[in-house]
Amino acid sequence: MRHLVLCLALSSLAAHGAEPLLAHPPGPYPVGFRVIQQAQGRQPAQVLQWYPAGAPGSTLRYADYLATRLTALRQDRSPDELQALRGQQASRLGQRLGSATAQALLEAPMRATLHAAPAGAAFPVIVYAPGVGGPADENAELLEDLASHGYVVLSSIGMGADGKDVEESLAGVEPQVADIRALIRLAESDPQADARRLALLGWSWGGMTQLFAATQEARVQALVSLDGTREPELTRQIDVTRLIAPWLYVSRTPDTISEINRRGIDTRFSLLNEARHSPVTQLIVYPMRHEDFVSRRLREAPPTAYDEYSQAEVRQAFGMVALYVRHFLDAHLKQAPESRAFLARKPVENGAVPHTLRLDASGSLAPRP
Fold first, then answer.
1. For the chain, which residues make up each domain, given as ranges?
2. What is the annotated signal peptide range for this record (predicted)?
């Protein structure tokens, strides 16, 4: 009997590792995924693309996403070296999650598929910017979801110049800004991408650097920051007169006054307040911490990594974040009336657990002309 209970428990854990992260159904399009290895000397060297497909392709597993991290900066690895490195990835994941759950996660089929033919139309473009050192697939399930609703999504690793670690200073902003702008140019050459309808999306450091990029790209029609970096010594360098696109800032539980004081944060400047030329919408998500805004963390962290809110509660909140991101982009890039209605309602009316989300808007939620 004890053996049966243990087997059932392990089976439950393994199933949890394999189940979809987002509970809501995908959009109307199957999703294709491809890895673009650019010519030597071009940056970023590796680009991940999710796109609306005409029909599903072959199965893509979570392990395939992990494999892209091995070639993001090094395309010269031998097959034997790659096999050994994939084994190391699996071993590290097993140490965190347990072997059964880790194996189930690695083998889990994703919503995106490989070798899928494009849907045959031109779709709006989203360029994603990861956090410091973050892999291009760090928010894969959010990006899959957006592609299923009719977006071409591009992402590259969040590194500094020449593949070095990011220097968290103004000088360290420029490499990722250059990568973001390079991905925009790459989208312009893709017949499936309509780069005239363009949004930038990023987490943490990437949620800030995309704002610098937006001041250099007038065509940007929407911005989404997932708990983006807010250091005043950096954000005060942004030219707010050129920051004009509607901006959704999604943030974690606000820090207490004592936490702010301990960290020495200068509260005299807030870009959210200074961005007077951009309609700013702030979504506060109380169950989530900074690191919870990427699907990689929600997939690869053990249940013991969560504290006041359980893993299930944080995952549910992440699902609501995905809905708000998609509807915000639909409202501003597609002028979708149902999305404008979604944004105008209270979070609880959209399915949020009471007291978990708060929505504040400083400007009109209606898309700009």
1. 26-361
2. 1-17
Percent of the chain with pLDDT over 90: 75
User: Which structure tokens are listed for 55?
Assistant: 């029909």
Q: 163 and 176 in contact (C-beta within 8 Å)?
A: no
351 DSSP 8-state letter: T
Yes or no: say if 207 and 228 are a contact pair by the CB < 8 Å rule: yes
Q: What is the mean pLDDT of the chain?
A: 90
The predicted pLDDT at position 52 comes to 99
What is the spatial order of strands in the sheet that 247-251 belongs to?
A: 58-61, 109-114, 31-37, 46-52, 152-155, 123-129, 193-203, 220-226, 247-251, 280-285, 357-361
CATH of domain 26-361: 3.40.50.1820
pLDDT at 170: 85
DSSP states of 271-296: HHHH-TTS-EEEEEETT--GGGGSHH
β-bridge partners, 248: 224, 281
Distances, alpha carbon 143 to alpha carbons 9, 100, 101, 121, 235, in Å: 31, 27, 23, 19, 26
pLDDT tens digits along 81-103:
999 999 999 999 999 999 999 99
Beta carbons of 253 and 220 less than 8 angstroms apart? no
